[in-house]
Amino acid sequence: MTNPLHRVLDLFEQASRVSDPCAMFVTLVTLDDGGMPVARVITVREVTDNGLIASISATSPKVAQLAADKWEVLCFWPSLMIQCRLRGHARIQHDQATVASWRARPKASRLADTYHARGRSQSSPIASREVLLAEVDALARASGDLTECPETVATLLLKPTLVEIWLGSVEDRLHDRRAYSLTHAGWSEQVLVP
Ligand SMILES: Cc1cc2nc3c(=O)[nH]c(=O)nc-3n(C[C@H](O)[C@H](O)[C@H](O)COP(=O)(O)O)c2cc1C
Does the structure show a pLDDT above 90 at 144? Predict the structure, then answer.
């Protein structure tokens, strides 16, 4: 059968066409050191035949968590009443495309990445919001145009080997659920009870 990521790409495009508020946002779940789930929203920058591309900070604890490949992405587009669940392999890289895309971002975003890179890791505790604001302000004054992309800016490629698509059928509750798994023989489809 054909690659279900074509369908996933089509769903992202449909959601974008109808201006769904969640068109670009998904929930990424990982497991922390104690095996507890950690969920957070991230922004999907691109969807290709290969998977989903996002931008994250390599200073975040999610980078180590993703290395174990125990992650799940949940997409939900309320305008379409469609849910999609993805699992598979995660790859984190810093290449020319990472730098080019970073340079095109708003200054506030480049400043936040530079702040993380200069010793304040994302998600680390800090004494107070006042300390945070003062440090970021001092960094903004000292760093000019922020054209140097920090090495900690990372491109995350989520390459699914399992895709589940849930098409809502609100009237009769007989939602159309299909799970797609990637094996050596290619993708296979399984219909699931809703
Ligand atoms: C709408 C929205 C979009 C976000 N997009 C991103 C993103 O693209 N990349 C990212 O690392 N964090 C993004 N965040 C912040 C994350 O949810 C999270 O707070 C941050 O990545 C720290 O996660 P951690 O606990 O895994 O370190 C976004 C949050 C929201 C609410």
Answer: no
Query: Which among 150, 175, 152, 131 is positioned nearest to 58, based on CA atoms?
Result: 152
Domain boundaries, the chain: 4-94+152-192, 106-150
Taking Cα atoms as reference points, which of 32, 44, 45 lies closest to residue 71?
Answer: 32
Does the pLDDT value for residue 141 go beyond 90? Answer: yes
Fold entry, domain 4-94+152-192: Pnp Oxidase; Chain A (2.30.110)
Ligand 1 pocket, Cβ-based, cut-off 6 angstroms: 25, 40-43, 54-57, 60-62, 122-123
Quick: pLDDT tens for 57-93.
999 999 999 999 999 999 999 999 999 999 999 999 9
Which of 28, 30, 42 maximizes ligand 1 atoms within 8 Å of its Cβ, making it the mutation to test the pocket? 42
